[in-house]
Write a structure and sequence with these properties.
Layout: H1 5-17, E1 44-47, E2 74-76, E3 82-84, H2 92-97, H3 99-104, E4 109-112, E5 116-117, E6 150-154, H4 165-176, E7 179-184, E8 188-191, E9 204-206, E10 212-215, E11 243-245, H5 251-266, E12 271-274, H6 282-293, E13 300-303, H7 310-313, E14 325-326, H8 329-340, H9 350-353, E15 367-368, H10 382-392, E16 398-402, H11 424-431, H12 435-449, H13 451-455, E17 457-464, E18 467-475, E19 480-488, E20 494-498, E21 505-509, E22 515-518, E23 524-528, E24 532-539, H14 545-556
Parallel strand pairs: 1-4, 1-16, 4-7, 7-12, 12-13, 13-14, 15-16
Antiparallel strand pairs: 2-3, 5-6, 8-11, 9-10, 17-18, 18-19, 19-24, 20-23, 21-22, 21-24
Helix pairs in contact: 5-6, 8-10, 10-12
Length: 558
């Protein structure tokens, strides 16, 4: 009810004169938040679907391909080393059978390589691949999933009876609390030319109804005709090896991929990872993003812009270019370098963070990692992996860990030296007993339980030699939490003392459960084990003025 002016005046006078009942006028707490995006709470386990676990041998198609077989095609190196360019049997059943293993490590999402239909033969064109070779596709298969021919259809190597993609995503979500990240490719299809004779499916694109929409016809890009309807899906310039270069200027291509990935979102995909995003112009991604987010407003997308220039890859994150996050390649370079060398300095990590005045739309939404399937695996000791995980799961960004890293699997190897070797159930069982796994599980589950480590601002304190200290602070309308992270990558324990920005109150260490009461002028002192991490958390509103000023500066210049 709206009061008349006279009633308002009387009411105001009554409040002023009521000394026995003081009225508090509390201002809303300041907002100190790195990101509000829901997906920032996730931690991602990345796996190559075919190379994870063979849970159902009946879908292996071991005799597929005729003269160009597709199953188990080893590349032999020196000293008995092997890699493989054929299918190895990994499937949806293998993922689901090990969902508890992934969840219990502290991960909340699984990124799988593309699941769409790929050719049914090994590629007979190009230059033959050999052990340790690179940038050659001759003799390889589409086991990795990136040679799509029908982007509406699941490849026959992955599903089982009663376990199609929608069944997998639902089971992961409902039974294990795991989201599924779909790997997206729009830049290219399969290898499309240089074959001795044209092979089925290679250079072809099919629609949802199975109709042939495009066919390279084993012609070089320069030989394609603008007048041939089957050629209009392709650019007439080469891009990556012999892969078809899809025509992002053709509206029909955009329509095709929007429809295809809408389909997989209805099948339960929760987020999208975009392959080779820098090979496709920004205007394509802007339209792609707008059309998908019209139906899925909070859809999280992150792209692979394989470049170590932050100013370059940051362009994808801008709203005008689609607002798509990226894998933090500058961060990967720094993380791998620091944790692969015992004499490195924590200070070498600072430059890639871009916590203020940076090029990214929001640095807290980047996906952070130290290696993947397209580069050499990190060549670190067990302690190096442990230190890397302690950093990855406490610093800004959304952590991504490549399958097998929980036991340092095939460390130091590139793609055709073992980087993508079959992991398998036996290795997973071994990993559960590995020291890297044990420490990863501890810190990943701390991040899972502490919102400040997921979405809080990062305020750095000390980065020198083997020690690092920083705060992660989260304060919004409904939560207020401060985490103090203390890291030691040295071989002996380190004593650390933090006084700056220290807030009085009860602090609880998340790995040990220890509690410390801090007074108004106290510092927090702690002993950090060799290759250890300590995460002290205080619940409650930020009251220390110097800290509030520093956080306001982070927000102002983010």
């Amino acid at each position: 009810m709206k009061l008349k002016p006279s009633f308002v005046a009387v009411a105001m006078l009554s409040l002023v004169g009521c000394a026995t009942q003081p009225q508090e006028n509390k201002a809303a707490p300041a907002q100190y938040v790195g990101t509000t995006h829901p997906f920032a709470a996730e931690a991602i386990y990345f796996l190559i679907t075919d190379r994870f676990v063979d849970g159902d041998p009946s879908n292996n198609h071991e005799h597929q391909g005729g003269e160009h077989p597709t199953f188990n095609l080893p590349l032999i190196g020196e000293d008995g080393k092997t890699a493989n360019v054929g299918y190895m049997g990994g499937d949806f059943r293998g993922v689901l059978n090990n969902a508890a293993f992934i969840r219990d490590m502290g991960f909340t999402a699984i990124w799988m390589t593309p699941i769409v239909d790929n050719p049914d033969e090994a590629f007979a064109g190009g230059e033959p691949i050999s052990f340790g070779g690179a940038f050659k596709d001759g003799g390889k298969t589409g086991y990795h999933g990136y040679w799509g021919v029908n982007f509406f259809k699941v490849d026959e190597h992955y599903p089982s009876v009663g376990l199609e993609y929608a069944d997998l995503t639902r089971s992961l979500r409902e039974q294990f609390g795991l989201k599924t990240v779909l790997d997206v490719v729009t830049n290219h299809g399969s290898p499309s030319f240089s074959m001795p004779t044209d092979q089925p499916k290679f250079g072809e694109i099919y629609g949802k109804d199975g109709r042939l929409l495009a066919d390279h016809q084993n012609l070089t890009p320069a030989q394609l005709s603008a007048d041939n309807p089957l050629h209009q899906f392709f650019h007439r310039e080469e891009d990556i090896l012999q892969l078809s270069n899809l025509n992002d200027e053709n509206p029909a291509v955009l329509d095709y991929f929007v429809d295809a990935y809408r389909h997989w979102l209805t099948q339960g995909a929760a987020a999208l990872r975009i392959d080779t995003i820098k090979h496709v112009p920004h205007h394509f991604w802007k339209q792609f993003s707008d059309r998908l987010r019209a139906q899925h407003p909070d859809l999280f997308m992150f792209g692979e812009s394989y470049d170590y220039n932050a100013n370059f890859i940051a362009q994808h994150t801008l709203a005008k270019n689609g607002g798509i996050s990226v894998l933090d390649f500058p961060g990967q370079q720094a993380i791998s370098k620091v944790f692969s060398a015992s004499d490195s300095d924590f200070a070498e990590l600072l430059a890639y963070l871009h916590l203020t005045h940076g090029p990214y739309a929001n640095p807290y939404e980047l996906t952070t990692f130290y290696d993947n399937h397209d580069m050499a695996r990190m060549d670190a000791s067990d302690n190096g992996f442990i230190d890397a995980h302690n950093w990855l799961f406490t610093s800004r960004g959304i952590p991504v860990v490549y399958m097998g890293s929980e036991m340092g699997y095939m460390r130091g190897t590139v793609e055709h030296q073992g980087n993508r070797n079959y992991y398998g159930q036996g290795n997973i069982d071994l990993a559960k007993q590995h020291p890297i796994h044990a420490q990863l599980q501890r810190i990943a589950n701390v991040r899972k339980a502490v919102p400040a480590l997921q979405r809080g601002l990062q305020l750095n304190l000390t980065f020198a030699g083997n020690q690092a200290a920083f705060y992660r602070v989260l304060q919004s309308d409904d939560e207020a939490q401060t985490a103090l992270v203390l890291l030691n990558k040295g071989d002996s324990a380190a004593h650390m003392k933090v006084q700056r920005y220290m807030q009085p109150g009860v602090w609880r260490e998340q790995l040990s459960g220890e509690v410390m009461q801090i007074g108004e002028t106290d510092s927090l002192e702690d002993n950090i084990p060799a290759h250890g991490v300590r995460v002290w958390v205080r619940e409650g509103v930020i009251e220390q003025q110097e800290l509030r000023n520093a956080l306001s500066e982070l927000i102002l210049h983010r």
